[in-house]
Amino acid sequence: MNLLEKHRKTFNTDKPIIGCVHLTAMPGTPYYDKSYSIEEQIERAKREAKILQDLGFDAIVFANEADRPYLTEVGPEVIANYVRIASAVIEDIKIPYGCGVLIDPKATIAVANAIGAKFVRTYVSNSYETTFGLQRFHPGEIFRYKKMIEADDVSIYTYFEAHAGVELDTRDILDQISSAFVSMPISGMLIGGPRAGLPPKVSKMAEVKNKYPDYPLIMGSGSNKDNIKEMLEYCDGVIVGTTIKKDQYLYNEIDYDRAKEFIEAAKGK
Q1: Residue 69 burial (CB count, 10 A)
Q2: End-to-end Cα distance, the chain
Q3: Mean pLDDT over residues 157-167, rounded?
Q4: Measured distance CA(250)–CA(221) in Å, rounded
Q5: In b/e form, how buried is each residue of 162-187, taking b as 16+ CB within 10 angstroms?
Q6: What is the pLDDT of residues 38-65, one digit of tens each?
Q7: How many CA atoms lie less than 13 Å away from 7 in the CB half-sphere?
């Protein structure tokens, strides 16, 4: 099975529209609000997942952007709460779901394995100097860890460029992609904008896809109802969050009407 066939099997479609279910800030993180109980967090996540599923999104990805500023190694309190919330939500999910624990690839893989997620979005290689400090990812360690915990069914989609920073590997992204797919068991790649809510350049998406048509490419940020049709010409799926939120603010709940407008634009309804 080639990578595009595996991609389709993971999402049950060629170009999945993946909606984010953002968890609220976890205990121990700077924006955590102890007055907001875990039961309330679960109910919020259930509401968001139901909207996405009912509107016809192809998949859901759990995300913890609210835990800013991010760590490359999160604490057990984050993992424990993340798994508790996601486990309660997935009881009602009938479509594929994935997760990401920013910006900790081992925690991401461990959580995915625990909740039965089909895919993850994460970093597995390169070094970056960013708003969140120096980040170094060691693929040899990460993929050995994945093998050790027998997370063989978890498909890994990875970024090659820094989020809110710069990569220290100065090779062209096309060279990085070529090297990565040869040397690492990744399932696909993610390309996003400079931060959440901002899109990558269409020209970059086109360049990558034209060079590597057999490697699944997911747009990781910045899709909206106005650009989604053009972006889908060059990518094999999109992850959407900010544009479907109330007032287009990342940390708000999903706005039903905005989510409906987006999925209708994406699917041409």
Answers
A1: 14
A2: 32
A3: 90
A4: 11
A5: bbebebeeeeebeebbeebbeeeebb
A6: 999 999 999 999 999 999 999 999 999 9
A7: 23
Q: Would you say the pTM of this structure is higher than 0.85?
A: yes
| Coil, helix or strand at residue 84 | helix
Element holding 121 (H helix, E strand): strand 119-122
What does the block give as tokens for 231?
A: 């972006």
Helix (H) or strand (E) holding 110: helix 105-115
On whether the CB atoms of residues 19 and 244 are closer than 8 A, the answer is yes
Residue 269 above 70 pLDDT? no
Element (H, E) at 47: helix 38-55
Provide the CB-side half-sphere exposure for 85 (13 A, CA). Answer: 30
Q: For 202-230, what is each residue's pLDDT tens digit? A: 888 899 999 999 999 999 988 999 999 99
Taking 80 as the threshold, does the pLDDT of residue 197 lie above it? no
Region for 178 from its dihedrals, namely left if φ exceeds 0, alpha if ψ lies in -120 to 50, beta otherwise: alpha
> Among 12-16, 102-106, 172-176, 193-197, which is the least confidently predicted range?
193-197
Q: What's the rounded Cα separation, in Å, for the pair 230 and 227?
A: 6
Spatial distance between the Cα atoms of 7 and 217, rounded to a whole number of angstroms: 10
Spell out the residues 6+ positions from residue 15 whose beta carbon is closer than 8 angstroms to its own: 232, 235, 236, 237, 238
Contact at 8 Å (CB) between 117 and 154? yes
